[in-house]
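Protein modeling request. Please complete all fields; requests missing the sequence field cannot be processed.
Requester role: graduate student
Desired output: 3D structure, token encoding
Chains: 1
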Amino acid sequence: MSVASPSSTPAQGAFQKFRERNSRILPNIKARIGVGLLLVFVLLAVLAPVISPYSPTYTGFSLGASPSPAHLLGTTRSGQDILSQLIWGTRPSLDVSLTTGFITMLLAVAIGILAGLLEGIIDEILMLFTNIVLVLPSIVLVIVISSYISAASDVTISFIIALTSWPWGARVIRAQTLHLKSKDFVKAAIASGENHFRIAFFEILPNMFSLVAANFFFTCLYAVVTVASLQFLGLGNINAISWGSILYWANNSNALMIGAWWWFLPPGLAIGLLGAAFALINFGIDELTNPRLRREGR
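Delivered output (298 residues):
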């Protein structure tokens, strides 16, 4: 049994605890599959200029052609190569989901830890504001705001989704912060006169990393589906190359009615696989932090 060095600092001890508690996520089969799928999409987004056979905006091909060796997923009624659009559409989908997840995570962590750590009047004000945002119908609010913004950009949609999605995570993080405050190591840090910033980031946050990560990936999953739905309804920037805009133009051209499966099925499958990647990583983190799920998995 190893014994920590007497000269180790509290920051080193917190980092060691962080590594020990979260080093088991990759052996989880669900997390491995999710991370593998996510890496595939990341590679597609990064290598799009190299692996894309044509420019996604070029309209000089045959109109509405079915799949062929020259166009593996056929062409649109405007003469654009669908495979090229699918590859280039990976980047905005990843950008929106990760940006939304990151903003939501920052808001949830900041408000949740601050409310749980300070308590008192600050806690009551923050929780009142959280509860007000929580009861708002987020998807309806996103649709209404997007409909009033002409050709809303992906960044705008990311901020709208993030500003309506953080309360769930904030409440859970606040509850976990209150639980951790009752632990001896946090009480010792408070008694020794440590400032709130150091207690939050070196004592509390490392012990809820899995919870924060689960909130991040769940928000990414929600953002992927929401953005694609908004673009499919024509509330996003339908002129930009993305999976949602591909589905929008496929629906406008009655691709389902004419049996042009190569136009609507690949982007729908891509959205499902990216969502599955985030969901599997989230499930893996959940099993890591829930002992009962780990026993059932065995």
